[in-house]
User: Fold this.
Amino acid sequence: MERRLWRKGAMLPDPHHLAALDAADPLGFARARFLLPDGLVYLDGNSLGPLPATAPALLAQAVADEWGQGLIRSWNDAGWIDLPVTLGAAIAPIIGAEPDAVVACDSVSINLFKLASAALALRPDRRTILMEAEDFPTDAYVMQGLARLAGVTLRRVPRADLPDALNDDVALLLLTHAHYLSGQVHDMAGMSAAAQAVGALTLWDLSHSAGAIAVQLDADGADFATGCGYKYLNGGPGAPAFAYVARRHWATCEPALTGWMGHAAPFDFAADHEPAPAARRLLTGTPPILAMRALEAGIDTFAGIDMAAAEAKSRALVQLFAAGAAAIAGVTVDPLPTGRHGAHCIIRHPQARRVMNALIARGVIGDCRPPDAMRFGFPALTTRFADIGLALAALQAVLASGEWQDDRFAPKGVVS
Ligand SMILES: Cc1ncc(COP(=O)(O)O)c(C=O)c1O
Assistant:
């Protein structure tokens, strides 16, 4: 199949074969679940998932009916009070967890703090949090704050050194399942077993895995996990995140950040905190209902989706894009997407921001990470094989023309 995709000597895949791949794609139907602007090649679902087609009506109803008419009664009548657990249960099958093990709440940063503090409390005699040196900054920032507060040491080591750094002083091993830049995927079962062998607990950041690739938290022996709602779960800008705790810790998991929504009986207004059952104990304050409704629409886009099939499709898209980009002069593909991989990949150019701005002007949207990475995401639900051809053609044109050097493509703004 690979041979037929490329015309002899061509840098770009044959559009006819891309169209044939789209026609045969068993997940092709899912794109209709979204409202995407015409003529745009959107390859940034790894940063902000697109708008689910049901979201505008669901949000309008939540505003006009639930808030406007139901008012305070909607906490019960519209099920607002239970949304963190009902949405958690809906996220659970996407990440291989049982329903009561997951809640939708807060941000990844806050959930990292809560879960890591719970892990430290479960291993009071140990003094080390271990994580990968090159992980997403918020993971490190949160652990730095927690380590200061708890009086433990944060050890950050290169990926290859992680197994050797596991010892009997490690309370917690924090890992990002699919790396936010390289896309490399940790062996969850293997690393969980290695941590367990020395008595350490694991906390997984699933921000680039949940809704992107297959995850089996329960089966792979994870202890704790969290991940974004606004990326592959399509929950909207700033969507609530989720938090997972394995059943074996339900009775004993006690995060340092406790709030009334995680109380066993919040409306008893008791003087002291008594944790709610299962993952509900991870809740803190009042849930943001409108954001929760948008997240609900995002989670609904996964109805009937087999995550193994989604991962296989994204992998094919990533490899096709990487192979095409590798043949274009001026960019390098580093690292090459080999082995199990997230649904995104990066290519490098010394003026990545300018090149990306020029691509965006041509209707191809990805994002950048300093100093030289352009990142492109290929969520299985929304990406067409034809998009790969269009993106590669635009990249080739931007580089061949040198248009990225134009003043209008100079870096500006803070969010990318
Ligand atoms: C791996 C990873 N963790 C965490 C975050 C951000 O988490 P938060 O929800 O706190 O903004 C991101 C955002 O891109 C991420 O890529």
User: Anything to note?
Assistant: The longest helix spans residues 307-326. The longest strand covers residues 170-176.
